[in-house]
Design a protein that fits this description.
- The chain is α/β, with parallel strands linked by helices.
- It has a domain at about 200-440: Alpha-Beta Barrel (TIM Barrel), CATH 3.20.20.
- Helix content is about 25%, strand content about 10%.
- It is built from ten helices and eleven strands.
- The strands form two sheets. Strands 3, 4, 5, 6, 7, 8, 9, 10 and 11 form a nine-stranded parallel β-sheet that branches.
- Helix 5 links the parallel strand 3 and strand 4 (about 265).
- The longest helix has 25 residues, at about 30-55.
- The radius of gyration is 42 Å and the shape is elongated.
- About 25% of the residues are buried.
């Protein structure tokens, strides 16, 4: 209690002491720190993801090696940037670029015989001495023994050979690449073949006219094949041009420029095939149909909606085959490309369907034991579009044909291939060969 007698200062002090001070507010920094942490981590992760998605591998390696000494340097052989003949030393590893012919890090450094009889200062440099590594010493190299006896002192220093760049073959001076228009015309005009197809060898289907065996036993192979008279003492060699009908210029060149003994195989995906088949037979060419099938590079190389696939059921492949055969009813046989399908058991039902329709077959799988006219393709001559490569394949195919007694080649319609073929046809007699249609090289149960 305060009384009037109390001092004013004492009264003020007591009043102030009775008043409790207001507590200080505490600032909560946890949300602020959490937000900053999220921003830092998010920004770091975002920057790392951006760098990982945009930087090249070489940029990343350069970023990791930014604190190291630069290792990419090109020095003159036997000379470094200090002016002496000591090879440059790079920390941790040998030089990244080694001059051609110079000894590597693990090679024996005794490619040049030691020079004796001369000292430094007489106009000769001493042989390069390997410098000691700065950080990690390499394993010791045992030098070969110095030969006893006199050593020639007049041999010139070995100069590293200049690198030879790998180049593709260049055409000869004045060489003009062949074109379809530059191909020569045949010397004589061929006699046309009989019109095809024949009505009694057809049967209507949902896909169009399909070949069948007539009531008298005649087949499309017998009716549509080009007649051929064998010359004694010669080996029959057939050439089939595959994939025609898709390119007008290529198809016209195959029909008009090549000899009538050359067989023409048309793609089922081409248009106006009835007109192309008629024009080909009018020029004396017998006709085959290309059967699209799964080949090397599948599925990147898609054979199309009518392609025969290893993964398809046999019924599906037969349906697709009928759709293909209905496109070229005047063909005497079918040609299949090499690849997975013709090497698989799925080819056997297809060959059986071709036999029932009286057709022949040509392809890599022709060795299967199916009773139908068939011929094995021994080579495709234009895998490499170089004149020398095509000539080499033609000569190799001639050797195989002489060994087997016959042969069948496949070529795609390209000017350089046609040009090489026309020149080779004139030399076939020298190799003991005669050009024959594909129907003349097929066999039935191993017999012609």
């Amino acid at each position: 209690m305060l009384s009037l007698d109390d001092d004013e200062d004492l009264i003020a002090e007591r009043l102030l002491g009775s008043v409790e001070p207001e507590p200080r507010r505490r600032v909560n920094l946890r949300p602020l720190l959490t937000g900053l942490l999220v921003l830092v981590l998010g920004g770091g992760l975002g920057a790392g993801a951006y760098l990982a998605s945009t930087m090249d591998t070489r940029d990343l390696i350069a970023l990791l090696d930014i604190g190291d000494r630069p290792r990419l340097s090109l020095e003159m052989p036997g000379r470094n940037n200090r002016g002496d003949s000591t090879p440059p030393v790079v920390s941790g590893a040998g030089p990244l670029l080694t001059p051609p012919g110079a000894p590597g890090e693990n090679d024996t450094p005794a490619l040049v015989p030691p020079q004796t009889g001369h000292t430094e200062g007489e106009g000769h440099e001493s042989p390069p001495q390997p410098a000691a590594p700065v950080e990690t010493p390499p394993p010791p190299v045992i030098a070969p023994p110095v030969p006893s006896g006199p050593v020639a002192t007049t041999s010139p220093p070995v100069v590293p050979a200049a690198p030879v760049a790998a180049t593709q073959p260049l055409p000869a001076a004045g060489y003009q690449a062949p074109s379809y228009a530059s191909l020569p015309d045949p010397a004589t005009k061929a006699q046309p073949l009989p019109p095809a197809p024949i009505e009694e060898l057809l049967r209507r289907s949902a896909y169009g006219p399909l070949p069948v065996v007539s009531r008298g036993g005649q087949t499309a192979f017998q009716a549509y094949a080009r007649p051929f008279e064998m010359k004694p003492g010669k080996i029959r060699m057939a050439v089939v041009v595959a994939g025609l009908g898709l390119d007008k210029d290529a198809t016209e060149a195959a029909i008009d420029k090549l000899p009538p003994e050359v067989t023409l195989a048309f793609s089922p995906y081409a248009g106006a095939l009835d007109k192309w088949v008629k024009r080909a037979r009018d020029a004396g060419h017998e006709v085959m149909v290309m059967v699209p099938a799964e080949s090397e590079g599948f599925p990147s190389r898609d054979p199309g909606p009518w392609g025969l696939l290893v993964g398809n059921p046999a019924e599906e492949n037969i349906t697709r085959l009928e759709q293909v055969l209905a496109r070229v009813p005047g063909a005497f046989g079918a040609l299949a490309p090499g690849g997975a399908f013709v090497r698989s058991p799925k080819l056997a039902p297809v060959l059986a369907a071709l036999r029932e329709r009286g057709l022949a077959f040509a392809g890599e799988g022709a060795k299967l034991d199916v009773d139908l006219p068939r011929a094995e393709v021994i080579a495709t001559i234009d895998h490499d579009l170089f004149r020398d490569a095509i000539e080499s394949r033609l000569n190799a195919a001639a050797d195989i044909a002489r060994k087997n007694g016959r042969g069948l080649l496949v070529v795609t319609p390209r000017p350089v291939a046609f040009d090489r073929l026309l020149g080779w046809f004139g030399r076939m007699g020298e190799q003991g060969l005669v050009l024959a249609p594909a129907s003349a090289v097929v066999t039935l149960n191993g017999k012609s």
